[in-house]
Design a protein that fits this description.
Structural class: mainly beta
Oligomer: single chain
Shape: rod-shaped
Helix content: 10-25%
Number of helices: 7
Largest sheet: 12 strands, mixed
Strand content: over 45%
Radius of gyration: 54 Å
Amino acid sequence: MAKKILKTLVNNLGFKILAVVLAFILWLVVYNIDDPKKSKTFTTNVTVENASAVTDMNKCYEVLDGTNTVTFTVTGKRSELEKLDDTDFSAVADMNRLIINDKGNKASVPIEISAKRTYTSVSINNKNKYMELSLEDLMSRRFMISADTSGKVASGYALGEVSVTNPNVLNVSGPASIVKKVDKVVATIDGMSSNLTDNVIPVLYDSDGNEVDTTQLKLSNTTVTISAKILSVKEVPLVFSTTGTPYGEYRVVEISSTPDTVKLKGASNVLNPLVSLEIPANVINVSGAREDVKTTIDISEYLPDGVELVDSSAASVTVTVRIEAYASRTYHLQTSDIRVNSLPDGLNLSFDKAQVSVTISGLQDDLNKLNASELAASIDASRLSEGTHQVELSLKLDEDHYAYQPITVSVTVKAKNTQDGDTSTDSGEDTGE
């Protein structure tokens, strides 16, 4: 039985082997017809490696013409290609392979494209791709950060100190052409209702006040801390005085200023007790003056500690000191209106004349307001005895506004006649008893 089977297997062996080969070839043809090789285009972003190779040359780069992406063709069996997408491939530009042109302003970097996994029938075509770069010198500059505010302060309050901290300087580095444009760095705080501190993004400006694009720049800090103080406001009058004496009979009539009040700001506990801003007398010297004195004063020098001007431009104040010469006027006093003080007991006093004249000097406006009845003339009779005497007349006048030369009046003092019951002075004046 076994021999019969063996004979059957080896009978026409060549035809049988040929049939197997033909069957395999037929299978292979059918397989390739059903799953043929195809090509497909993919696009992926280029990853930069070893970028420090450029900065080590003190240069920076910018990718040109969109060469930070690469498009390539992949060939493989349809069944495998259909499973692939852009993310299955990587493209790397290694800056260590940088090719710089003769001028040193441009460069090319070979792009190496590879599949992230191994595929048996997949091959990548068009591998000779380059990332094109422009090169520029790298520059670094250091800027003080200026503080600014936006918004309005509530009525009755003013903006106090605005400061930038943590940090107050900013290092800016990047392409020289961009860094050179930067003129200032400003940090702005918003919201003026109360004292506040905030972290803000500093903004770079050129000399024309236009904002500088920082896309290609590297900043030492992305945010800075800015603080603003809100202070109370109070309007107070300006008070002036003078030093020195005008010439001869000239006197200071009036001191006025433009403006005559000033708005101050400060903490409430410092500002509330302040009722005026007094300028020291030694600031305005009128020694020997015969005409008005006009001067300009910087009042910011005389502000109390913790107090500032709301408007710094209001520091300059024009002060005018009006100078006038004394005028003279003669007043005629009835001696019956002169008060006799401290006349000793047992004596009577009479004035030798019914009227006495007094010349008073003062500013014309003051003299116009002065009446003879307001002079309150009096004499001191405490040391008088019987006989005729010359007694100095005293007037009750404000020495800051008036002056008069000493004047005497003639009086006669007699003993009282007790037999006649005479108990008063002959003139009928107050004896002061």
